[in-house]
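Appendix C reproduces, verbatim, an entry submitted by the partner laboratory led by Prof. M.T., so that reviewers can inspect both the input and the predicted structure.
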Amino acid sequence: MVVGGVLFSFLVLSSYYLLRYGGSNLSFTFFYVSGIPGTGLQETTLLKLLLPVLAVSVALTTAFTLALGLLYSHRIAGPIYNLKRVLRDVRRGNLDRKVRFRKKDEFHDLAAEVTRTITWVRNNMRLRRRS
């Protein structure tokens, strides 16, 4: 969503500039820059100045967002996969399982609750067998 938002903002700014100033004689051509010393001033537009900066910022934001998204999704998907595997084993009769997640994973409170529930079920089954 963040990447989409950044791209949408980029498109809105670019479209606004082109619609507002692209067809007129003004076109913001009063910016003058010199890229190489001694070559004199060159006439340019605001869009030509800002387009590389906007493109780099969109690329960096996209890369950063994707990297964080992958990292965070592994912190959620890993525990869910582990929890499903433990519950599958419990359903097969293995009541000695404990739910353990990595230190940086999410849902530690859920893991503790499921482990307490498995222990409770195991203890109640032992009490029923003794009766």
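The radius of gyration is 30 Å. Additional entries are available on request from the coordinating office.
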